[in-house]
Automatic annotation (TrEMBL), chain A:
Gene3D superfamilies xrefs: Cobalamin-binding domain
Organism: Streptomyces musisoli
Annotated SUPFAM superfamilies: Cobalamin (vitamin B12)-binding domain
Protein name, per record: Cobalamin-dependent protein
PROSITE patterns named among the record's database cross-references: B12_BINDING
Ranges for domain B12-binding: 12-150
Automatic annotation (TrEMBL), chain B:
Keywords of the record: Cobalamin, Cobalt, Isomerase
InterPro entries: Cbl-dep_enz_cat, Glu_mut_E
Domain of life: Bacteria
SUPFAM superfamilies assigned: Cobalamin (vitamin B12)-dependent enzymes (SSF51703)
The protein's name: Methylaspartate mutase
Length: 150, 426
């Protein structure tokens, strides 16, 4: 992952990685960048604490193949609902694939109601931070169009 | 140094041979927050209280914090700006005082609103720093954070006019939680303390977070204390050790062993205070009972550990830390300006930090002996000082392995190696 934080290959659609609006954690985002790069994707890593407006601006500028929102501070559900609601309101971003994952609630994993609400609000997938969640995320990555691995 | 306040309380405890232990506790409900403070005070340990704020208040999104208060939605901390002043006064009533000081913990790069709120309820202790609550924590430009922190220190220092001794703790010794070589943690923690001092604060604590190797941690605390003794004049200061801030062990035994090592580090290194972690850390925000159990366990380990501080200046960690500190201090008489130049030029460079104002050239790794070392020093002035071993390109699996090194090390001990059987270190 060098240079940092935007990996080099130009031309194709990148994957946008963003921390939750109020989430200061970084390691989850560094890990995701490496994982996505290993799957052949160019990554634009917006870092922690990404406000909705910044995510929208960057999404319009980069036209990403996928937006990945990651959160581990317990506000992931509420922040994630806000982010995707604003994102989907934007005419240019109604169809861009967007997913969310991590530790999404202050009491541990989200319940099925919350997962359903996140999907209804516009996420194409919701992943918890279990081994199964990570495996499901990897399977999803394999279905995306990707640039040639070099 | 008037003998009042948070710093004086910790000093008195240290002089009496006791380690002060403290949770990282914050709940949005005033009733739960009060219950948490009471439980902390009543724990069988020498404790200070914590009000950790929610992350909406931290990033200045007061609208969301206010909305949560109105709708009764639980947050990940206490929204001190959004609760009524009278509400917070009731939370603290009869609890906070000379025998039980309370610190407000937040994580903000622009904490003026937080400092005003805590001052309005009679509190005078907080923490953070212009670098450590900016770079790894969000997107506020470092220049703005430095200006906000200068103003915030001066705001808090104004309490001295009324006879109080306001206290600030650096968060610089905890930057990124894990995988930052200790010399850089020591340098940033010290530089933030000096920044507080130059902006009027006279009672300061310096943080250092337990890392991967107990010997290197002991060197780091000794280096930090040596820098303070030498360069922090006319200041009441102490060192606060944080139990490991990275991926925490998942087993109860592993979690307690790691906490025990942190308590041993704190006492043996001559430190005065310890921030604990709990058995729930790897899964969720801990309960009050889990926090009390952690406080009492840490106090028990501390009680059977002797002070045995290392000589501070003869180590690799001190050589690197003092080189970093000196390289910053020579840049500008104004420490805020010096910090800005240092990061712009990469003289300070936090490995893996994604902030646009961090150079991002440095890299670290965990060596075979467990010590954190530099794989790349970037443009930091450590040529000929640091032992640099370029690492191969890091992979996601390799990063995860490094991030979980401490968790794996402490979780793999079997049931025969329980906390009761754990030997105290001399």
């Amino acid at each position: 992952m060098s240079p940092f934080p935007i990996s080099p290959a130009p031309g194709d659609q990148p994957v946008l990685v963003a921390g939750g609006i109020s989430d200061s954690h970084t390691w989850n985002l560094v890990y995701l960048q490496l994982l996505l790069e290993e799957h052949g994707h160019r990554v634009v890593n917006l870092g922690p604490c990404v406000p909705e407006d910044l995510l929208i601006t960057e999404a319009l500028a980069h036209r990403p193949a996928l937006i990945v929102v990651s959160s581990v501070n317990g506000h992931g559900y509420h922040d994630g609902m806000r982010t995707v609601t604003r994102l989907r309101e934007h005419p240019g971003l109604a169809a861009v694939p967007a997913v969310i994952g991590g530790k999404l609630g202050i009491a541990g994993p989200c319940g099925s109601d919350e997962v359903a609400a996140l999907r209804a609000a516009g996420y194409d997938a919701v992943f918890d931070d279990s081994a199964e969640g990570v495996a499901a995320f990897r399977r999803m990555l394999a279905t995306l169009p990707q640039r040639a691995l070099v | 140094m008037t003998g009042v306040g948070f710093g004086a309380f910790v000093r008195r405890a240290h002089d009496a041979g006791r380690l002060v232990v403290q949770p990282r506790m914050g709940m949005s409900s005033p009733e739960l927050m009060r219950a948490g403070l009471l439980a902390t005070r009543n724990a069988t340990a020498t404790t200070v209280g914590t009000i950790t704020l929610d992350s909406y208040t931290r990033v200045g999104d007061l609208e969301s914090a206010q909305l949560a208060v109105l709708e009764g939605v639980a947050l990940n901390g206490y929204p001190i700006v959004s609760h009524e002043t009278a509400t917070t006064l009731r939370v603290l009533d009869g609890i906070h005082g000379a025998g039980f000081p309370v610190q407000v913990r937040h994580g903000s790069a622009a904490p003026q609103h937080i400092f005003r709120a805590l001052m309005s309820v009679g509190l005078d202790a907080s923490e953070g720093g212009p670098v450590s609550y900016c770079l790894p924590y969000g997107r506020v430009p470092l220049r703005e954070s430095v200006a906000h922190w200068a103003a915030s220190c001066e705001l808090l220092a104004g309490l001295r006019e009324s006879g109080a001794e306001p206290h600030l703790e650096t968060f610089g010794g905890c930057v990124l939680g894990q995988l930052c070589p200790p010399s850089l943690l020591v340098a940033v923690s010290f530089l933030e303390a000096l920044f507080f001092r130059r902006h009027g604060i006279r009672s300061i604590s310096l943080s250092y977070a337990q890392q991967t190797d107990p010997g290197q941690d002991a060197e780091a605390v000794a280096a930090l204390r040596s820098l303070c003794a030498r360069y922090l004049p006319d200041t009441e200061w102490h060192v606060v050790v944080y139990a490991y801030m990275g991926l925490y062990p998942e087993t109860e035994e592993g979690a307690y062993r790691l906490l025990g090592k942190a308590a041993e580090l704190a006492v043996a290194s001559g430190s005065e205070r310890l921030i604990v972690k709990t058995v729930a850390e790897s899964r969720r925000i801990p309960t009050v009972a889990e926090n009390v159990a952690a406080l009492e366990y840490a106090a028990t380990v501390a009680g059977r550990t002797a002070r045995a501080p290392l000589e501070g200046t003869g180590t690799q960690t001190y050589a690197e830390a003092s080189a970093l500190v000196n390289a910053v201090l020579e840049l500008d008489d104004d420490l805020g300006a010096a910090l800005l130049t240092a990061f712009a030029e990469g003289r300070l460079d936090v490995p893996y930090c994604l902030h646009p104002d961090n150079a991002g050239f440095s890299r670290s790794y965990i060596d075979a002996d467990g010590r954190l070392r530099w794989a790349d020093i970037g443009k930091m002035p450590l040529n000929g000082i640091a032992d640099v071993r370029p690492a191969q390109g890091i992979t996601s699996a390799g990063l995860l392995e490094s991030l979980s090194y401490v968790r794996r090390s402490y979780d793999r001990y079997g049931p025969e190696d329980t906390r009761a059987a754990e030997p105290a270190r001399p």
